[in-house]
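User: We ran a pulldown and think these components assemble together. Before we commit to crystallization trials, I'd like a predicted model of the whole complex to look at. Sequences follow.
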Amino acid sequence: MAYRILLIHGPNLNLLGDREPSHYGTMKLEEINARMERLAEEHGAELRALQSNSEGALIDAIQEARLWADGIIINPGAYTHYSYALRDALAAVRLPAVEVHLSNVHAREEFRRTSVIAPVVTGTVAGLGWRGYAAALDALLGLLADGGGGQS
Amino acid sequence: MAYRILLIHGPNLNLLGDREPSHYGTMKLEEINARMERLAEEHGAELRALQSNSEGALIDAIQEARLWADGIIINPGAYTHYSYALRDALAAVRLPAVEVHLSNVHAREEFRRTSVIAPVVTGTVAGLGWRGYAAALDALLGLLADGGGGQS
Amino acid sequence: MAYRILLIHGPNLNLLGDREPSHYGTMKLEEINARMERLAEEHGAELRALQSNSEGALIDAIQEARLWADGIIINPGAYTHYSYALRDALAAVRLPAVEVHLSNVHAREEFRRTSVIAPVVTGTVAGLGWRGYAAALDALLGLLADGGGGQS
Amino acid sequence: MAYRILLIHGPNLNLLGDREPSHYGTMKLEEINARMERLAEEHGAELRALQSNSEGALIDAIQEARLWADGIIINPGAYTHYSYALRDALAAVRLPAVEVHLSNVHAREEFRRTSVIAPVVTGTVAGLGWRGYAAALDALLGLLADGGGGQS
Amino acid sequence: MAYRILLIHGPNLNLLGDREPSHYGTMKLEEINARMERLAEEHGAELRALQSNSEGALIDAIQEARLWADGIIINPGAYTHYSYALRDALAAVRLPAVEVHLSNVHAREEFRRTSVIAPVVTGTVAGLGWRGYAAALDALLGLLADGGGGQS
Amino acid sequence: MAYRILLIHGPNLNLLGDREPSHYGTMKLEEINARMERLAEEHGAELRALQSNSEGALIDAIQEARLWADGIIINPGAYTHYSYALRDALAAVRLPAVEVHLSNVHAREEFRRTSVIAPVVTGTVAGLGWRGYAAALDALLGLLADGGGGQS
Amino acid sequence: MAYRILLIHGPNLNLLGDREPSHYGTMKLEEINARMERLAEEHGAELRALQSNSEGALIDAIQEARLWADGIIINPGAYTHYSYALRDALAAVRLPAVEVHLSNVHAREEFRRTSVIAPVVTGTVAGLGWRGYAAALDALLGLLADGGGGQS
Amino acid sequence: MAYRILLIHGPNLNLLGDREPSHYGTMKLEEINARMERLAEEHGAELRALQSNSEGALIDAIQEARLWADGIIINPGAYTHYSYALRDALAAVRLPAVEVHLSNVHAREEFRRTSVIAPVVTGTVAGLGWRGYAAALDALLGLLADGGGGQS
Amino acid sequence: MAYRILLIHGPNLNLLGDREPSHYGTMKLEEINARMERLAEEHGAELRALQSNSEGALIDAIQEARLWADGIIINPGAYTHYSYALRDALAAVRLPAVEVHLSNVHAREEFRRTSVIAPVVTGTVAGLGWRGYAAALDALLGLLADGGGGQS
Amino acid sequence: MAYRILLIHGPNLNLLGDREPSHYGTMKLEEINARMERLAEEHGAELRALQSNSEGALIDAIQEARLWADGIIINPGAYTHYSYALRDALAAVRLPAVEVHLSNVHAREEFRRTSVIAPVVTGTVAGLGWRGYAAALDALLGLLADGGGGQS
Amino acid sequence: MAYRILLIHGPNLNLLGDREPSHYGTMKLEEINARMERLAEEHGAELRALQSNSEGALIDAIQEARLWADGIIINPGAYTHYSYALRDALAAVRLPAVEVHLSNVHAREEFRRTSVIAPVVTGTVAGLGWRGYAAALDALLGLLADGGGGQS
Amino acid sequence: MAYRILLIHGPNLNLLGDREPSHYGTMKLEEINARMERLAEEHGAELRALQSNSEGALIDAIQEARLWADGIIINPGAYTHYSYALRDALAAVRLPAVEVHLSNVHAREEFRRTSVIAPVVTGTVAGLGWRGYAAALDALLGLLADGGGGQS
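Assistant: Here's a predicted model for the assembly, 1824 residues in total across the polymer chains.
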């Protein structure tokens, strides 16, 4: 069976490559998405990517994933730190999900150390750059293949 | 060139498989280490694993890694939450390092959400079970191949 | 005179019936809205319901209510806990308003105990399931009939 | 079956009508109790009301309710904010219970925003004046008729 | 060279003149924008104004300003207090920016004293009513003429 | 009528130009005062400037301003963060007042983000360098001309 | 006119003379009451004293004072630190009241520094031993003679 | 000499056996008291037991113990967490005292981890069920036999 | 023997009568000092009064009091809340001292509830207006006549 | 069946008798261990005692106890306050365990009031001197005889 | 080259020898200054000492040191804990500086553990009595001789 | 008499010279120890140095010092911030002790500003590099020669 994965990028991640490259690297979002689609294909899976600056649009996308996706990879951007609405959406759809951050959020401003999302996802990856997305996909597909990964 | 990686497991991780399987899974530490060694080999790298319940012994091992290793993967166990001595050791050796937790520490007791280690490592992975170690190794070797990964 | 009431549902409430039924019950949002419309009619009042996952859309709706509504019933969902923008909208329109939560937010995660909305509404109801909306409507219409209920 | 409800008023509520009418309104406690008894009768239920300034007497009344009542409506007055003994009594008797406040406690002094009682009751109502008691009764009888409302 | 400035108004500022005039004055937003446009013209500059209740739309506008504007004046409304996403947008575009508040936010509720935006802008103005916008524009154009004002 | 304005500079501001130019710029205090006097004259107003390292002397000057001045511009330097005595003096004289900081205090050490002065002044300006004083003067004279600006 | 004053002593004050004399002195409660009655008589006033270990009984006494007393002197003992119910009683009766402590509560355990009572009384006296009661009586009678002292 | 011990049970402990048996066990209070009286007898001591829901009554009992008892065993129930009045009573009578809790208060809600009583007693026992009372009695009698146990 | 008392008034108290009369009353400082001198004379004592806005001058005066005074009455004004230097001076001279506040500092802004002075004085009086000074003098002379009042 | 109990003493407890006897008494560790061994024998049980200053050695001992012991008595010394590694070891082995402190930790420095160990043990005893160990042993053997005492 | 050192003593240090000798010793300030001058001479350096109770005067002295001194030794007395103005002065003059305290400030009241000065000086010495000044001088002269010691 | 001093270096100090030289300088630990031994000899004293990464080993060394040493100089490294076990060891042996840090811990990360060791030592030195050890030795020998330096 071909697993289907939703890859969600939150606010300001459309500026990747451009924005503070010391934190976020120089690779553009399109390139990351392209690599992730290829990687999914190599695993016989399908990946659809989406970016939005709007909290409501991100919630809509998560809710719709109930209807077609087997798992979610999400970089919530700055919503990580306060969007309990995003958290509730992830908790409500009950799909296995991995939270990814490009930079090591623990080595930056204090507010970046708090994630209101982390308690409702399966796992988190931070500081590994674009490789973090790949790691999340590998693990997510592995968990799905094991028949698990959902929230208990 | 064959990269050499130190894999460190902190206190109580020798009980894996046995201890609170709902958090930590049923795979034994020996099995994880064996898988990691094979995976390293597949990448043409070498991995040496070590477990200790003693903070001092873990610090000694990190210090010695300066002399032979190219990177560190560390699951600091409960030392994650208070061992500034371990943190200082990792900062002092200046090797690329990834902190790994088997369980999603953010979904458990409040004290598990604080890592004093995270600000000095390259990245962190949590909640992905044994796959988290594999993800860390993949990313670490990728970073080394890119010629980077160390702390700036 | 027929009072007109706006009933607003915040993020993820469109999933009602589906989502964590132990917290939120098994009744769907459509059913709650239908019951509320009937109840309003029985009181000779009119009720219009609206759900959105978008903070901006919720604010827009509250602002427009200045032009047609006599009172507001709002379940702000997770925006309860951080949306000072929603709070400012409610304070700005100066209509009597009741904040409703389906579950007993005080018996769940710590963050759910803080409402930034509560200080600017007339009253709050929590933990009474769909009956909480009915209670809010009864009280709101009673207050309006008394000629009051607005914020001083 | 005729449900029997205990209505408990905590410290200083015997002064209602007299005391800070901008917060508590001008209706006297006797009038509220009379209205509530009539309302209960209309629903084919029985309501007994009690006021005391003494924490111990309130606990005694709650404990005795185990022997005759089907539900509790309680305005704990200032004990709301610190009486863990009252909380333990409510938790111990395991009857469905609704906490009511006449004023919007969230719009007043900071200390009034904390309820140590709320986590152990079924639901809470605040800021709706005497109508809050009526709302609580309606909801409580509805929950009992549904066969539930107790604490899980 | 004619500098181009983006003037952004956050949630609920479209109600200006109407809303809590003791805090926000009686001048309407259209009037403020008109005055600001005239003032810009007098300085040989161009000013474009925008208001939205939506966090995502505000972020979009800031991101687009990278392509045409030389500086930003922003009254983030209530987003001031929690929108790290707005903050990240301002930090990412690296344009000189001034945060303006009509009222003296320091003399109101405690939560209004915290700005998550302030650390990433050039400067802040509060409590000077519509004159605060004029002051921001004067200073911003002066800084641009000096060849600076951007974030280091 | 010619308005008279007191311009007060607190501790260490006599070192301007010399001291940490990355924060405070290279313009000397004498130059700022001279510019401000000229600017006041252009508006038909009179400005008297004063600097002191002594909290008591600053309070004395504020108290005396009751007898001759129409408004106050004050950069309290480090007293901003703890001098409740200065705050009480400003509150007691009830003149319109603007607090000015040369640097963006919100982008520096945590303690600089707290102003005990701000709640009793009309408005605040920060991060705009010497232009902040000019902005404060413009706004203050405008407010006085409008017949207001004092504390309510 | 002869003013009538209620003097209330809270829990454990019946042990005075006996209990921790380094904090509370060696004078017995009866002796203090006798002195206070004489002192009241000398001022042409009447004083009635009461001690109870029960929070409810203290509230009852305060409520009854509405019917006969012109002012209250109260040493709330340890209830000082948490009895919001006592505070509400004092606020409700709206009589001028002075809070007295025999010892200097500020020089003892941290918890003794917080009084939940102080914000609703006219004034407070601490650390002056039995003389504190005399000082409170003098001031209270003076305020009554001035025609004031009540809470606004 | 036959030591005399007061055994005090605070609020809601009269419900033992009935109330939340997973925390408090299934043994009734009468049975515990009977066991304790027998155990005291076996040691040649006398034990008198008392339960009350009223804080004032508990304080009265402690004060009276000065006149007849050699030591106190107290389970303050929920008063543990806030009754500084109870604490003051125990400190005032200066008898050796042991605080006992049936359940492990440290493994339950956060508020149960704070005891305002503990700093003034000789020792504490928690989590050992009814055996905790026996342990307290053994230790208390041992301390008395050693000629000590009082507070210094 | 004729006791000699130093009466110290801190910052902004020279404005009494003028400044915020709802908090501080309408009596001028000169009038208070005159009353206090007469009152001291009536007791056969001598009182010298001093006001300064300068923390250093207040400390100097306290230090000099070692050489001539038997006791100190001090209203530290806003220095109450942060002047550890004033506190150290009072602790160093080891004279009996009473801290007086005209207004009820506990019923105003949060910061006014903290006194860094209170732990080192004999006692405190607040909220009794000018009568507070008289109360302090009475008590201080009484304590001196008893041969005590100093700090242990 | 003869139960086997591990008695563990943490850092600095080898100095007992010598170290701060006002807190810890004058009995040496050897004497306590000898008494405990005799007491265990009297109950037909076996007790093995161990002291170490090393956190790692204590964890090792707890882990090994899985293989031979039926219960644990532990005085973690200062590790009580921060060793989450010790806590995890106790939680992992899932044996009934009692935490013992010789002194009343609640009557000493603030940091001694926090135990990170207490939430994972069966019960705690403090302040009863060497008798605390005896009380722990009695209770532990009783719990084992009841067939319980382990962590659920 | 002969280094010139400014030795500054803050408030109440003029009372040394007299004041709380258990904390501060019995040596007078003059004696300390004399010893320090001799010690400086022995090192071929010059030391000028100054004491003031006035924050402003201390700042003035630090500012003037820019013009003649090579380093500063400062005991800020109680200003240590809150004088950000003193801190700014030390940061502004950019001379190597050592903060000295006679007593071990960490073993006294909680507020003495915070130094707002320490982050801007080269080093700190506490608890070594007058020897602390000598240690500071030795180290300061050594650093100057090494050609460093200033703040980077 | 020749005083004997123990010099203890905590975790990671064996890397001195190598590790973050901007904080810790370029001198190796061996060199520091050699200098300290020579300096001790010059004073007619004996110094023995020891480094360990193990908390237990450091505690063992401190305990053994009771048997041979007259004083302790300790740089606890990162254990400074959390090792209450090390603190208890130092308190237990009751030898005069000085805590030394090479870098100015107050100018670095927030966690480095807290020392759990400082309240039990005689004094502290920080930020003076290797000279801090020399300063500690000088002061310690001086205190011993004065016949004091121990903890009271």
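The interface with chain F takes residues 98, 104, 106-107, 113, 115, 118-129, 131-132, 134-136, 138-139, 142-143 of chain E (CB under 8 Å). That may be worth checking against your pulldown data before setting up trials.

User: Thanks, that helps.
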